[in-house]
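Q: How do we represent a protein-ligand complex in a form that can be generated token by token?
A: Start from the inputs.
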Amino acid sequence: MRVLGIEGTAWCASAALYDSETDSVVIESDAYQPESGGIHPREAAEHMRQAIPSVVGTVLDEADGDIDADERGSSSRQAAPVDAVAFSRGPGLGPCLRIVGSAARALAQTLDVPLVGVNHMVAHLEIGRHRSGFSAPVCLNASGANAHILAYRNGRYRVLGETMDTGVGNALDKFTRHVGWSHPGGPKVESHAKEGEYTDLPYVVKGMDFSFSGIMSAAKQAVDDGEPVENVCRGLEENVFAMLTEVAERALSLTGRDELVLGGGVGQNDRLRGMLAEMCDQRGADFYAPEPRFLRDNAGMIAVLGAKMAEAGDTLAVEESGIDSNFRPDEVPVTWRTPESP
Ligand code: ATP
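Then emit the structure tokens for the protein with adenosine-5'-triphosphate bound:
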């Protein structure tokens, strides 16, 4: 099966072609770069409006080129270049999601193929499960607008722990905006932290949940009070990633699972991956982090999960395909796994 995936929840206008027979993924992305400050929803939506036709066009040209000439010749009408169209249905910024949803609906109707609505957070974790081959991992989603620890049980991914306030990447981005660095801030925190000495900042884990707004405010204050920014970046990384690692370890321990996968753009950070790998190593668990192109927002993960859903018959009627900007991962019935799989 060949699936066109379209992603556009916030900053990344992306299209992908996934071929489930060869397990190959082609991704074409165009990132929105704010001129100043953080992501502005109206500007991001304008970016989607401009960029989606071009990334989709590139990927469809690729799909079209793959169609065998005989296939075309033997068919009374032209074969569709893909077997389904999958799109990021939420969570995300409403104005962006509406553009991507409209594009996906129009394409599915024009090509006369099924439409699949994919939960962006479930896609972030399923790409890790798919590429690792793990059967029942605990999943840490460390992305811009979110932070969740999830595990599958009885037909759904259950949220075992999550942020009580801001997303983990957004906390880093808000700090870097305060010190005058351009968006996105996470990579800049990573490079400056390498030059810094650890400075103490709040560490907030409550049971299985974490909070990032206090540490972000304290980091801003520390810089205002004269602490070198490199030291604050180091303190931010050590504390924020230790919080995520602590909860991931508790989730492994409480569920008795021995596999961990990482998802989300913050997962591109070497220090976070190192902490998680070391924790897993110490408890004899397996750890998998996908390559960066599958960690940050991308349509590859939408196309891969879209193919699994389409194969399971989990498709949407156009009139019921509205977007959901607050679409939680635990709202999604997992149709693409056997009921008995853990
Ligand atoms: P979500 O997936 O929850 O909708 P999102 O759309 O903002 O969030 P992602 O692409 O998953 O997107 O992640 C983007 C975030 O990743 C940004 O906050 C960015 O600062 C952060 N990030 C990117 N690279 C790094 C890095 N090397 N270290 C830390 N954070 C990083």
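Residues 2-123+296-331 form a domain with the Nucleotidyltransferase; domain 5 fold (CATH 3.30.420.40). The longest strand covers residues 12-19.
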